[in-house]
Amino acid sequence: MTTSTIRCCNCVNPTSSKTKKLCTDCQRRLTDLLEWFDRTGPDLEANINKAYRHTANNQGGGGAGRATAPLPVNTVMFDFLETELKPELYGYATCLQVNTIHLHTVRQLAHAIRANNHLMENGATPEYLRILTKLRIKAEQLLDPEQDKPIILGPCPGYTRDNQPCNTSLRVADGQTSVKCPTCGSEWTVNALRERQRQLLLDTDITSTITGIHQKLADCGILTGKTTIRKWADRGQLPIQGEQDGHKTYRLSDAYLLATRSKRSIDSIWHLIAERNHSEEQEKTKQ
Ligand SMILES: [Zn+2]
Ligand SMILES: [Zn+2]
Questions:
Q1: Which domain of life is it from (predicted)?
Q2: pLDDT per position as a tens digit, 249-276
Q3: 183 alpha carbon to ligand 1 midpoint, in Å?
């Protein structure tokens, strides 16, 4: 008689028992996440109101009537809670057959999910572990955008258990040399991810507007101000590639080179020259 191992639906480890969907590690991660939302839910919700009160006071009580009453400033947090976080928590609670009629806050929802007896046996749990992992990262950024300034290393190159590209945004604290993906569990050295990101950015044909390039660089963890990018464009350092909705477009790889050249983190000037030659050669072969 053979005992077959049942694997975790989120990583390669075996599950702790036949009925459980996750391994011990992933179960703990889910519990931690739900605890975090339970604890932090009130902070997230207070964040909308704080912004609103602040504006209302500045406007002297808003006596001029509704038409001129200020809107809550923190609409980003409001949208996040109402269109992302809460719908997912309601969805998860529904999968667990939790009665949600009296549940209104993030804390109440997270608490009820955590208290569910069949949490770890439920088929939806692995998927919600992934969803909640991403939502927590977003929530933390919204609460404190400056918090610890993690270094973003770009999308995870790993694969999830159902063979889908993982693409979770990987980040590390300064000084860390390796990272374990919270979604697929794969491990990477920071150097390998940096190199991969550099290659992806240099090999890319993507062109975009200044706003688009700013965003794409930020997604890769390269924080360059829009004004800086505009300055490069004005000086002709960023050659114009075309136009999109009335805005000039530029090549992402050009902007990437300029952005990293001005950073001290680039250790060798020869590296840059090699990059530049590489991209120029590519350009020639395209023409
Ligand atoms: Zn696992
Ligand atoms: Zn991953």
A1: Bacteria
A2: 999 989 988 887 754 343 333 344 444 4
A3: 9
Q: Give the residue carrying structure tokens 């090699």.
A: 274
Output the CA 32–ligand 2 centroid distance in Å. Answer: 19
Q: Where are the domains of the chain?
A: 24-147, 204-286
Residue 57 Cα to ligand 1 middle (Å) = 49
The mean pLDDT of the chain is 80
Q: Which ligand is nearest to the CA of 155?
A: 2
For residue 263, which amino acid is it? K
CA of 10 to the centre of ligand 1 (A): 5
Identify the burial level of 190 via C-beta atoms within 10 angstroms of its C-beta, where 0-12 means exposed, 13-18 middle and 19 or more buried. middle
Cα 120 to ligand 1 centroid, rounded to whole Å: 12
Q: Is the dihedral angle over the CA atoms 140, 213, 84, 27 positive or is it negative?
A: negative
The yes/no answer on whether domain 204-286 falls in CATH 1.10.10 is: yes
Q: Report the pLDDT averaged over residues 104-130.
A: 95
Ligand nearest to the CA of 27: 1
Over range 1-6, report the average pLDDT: 65
Distance CA 229, CA 240 (A): 12
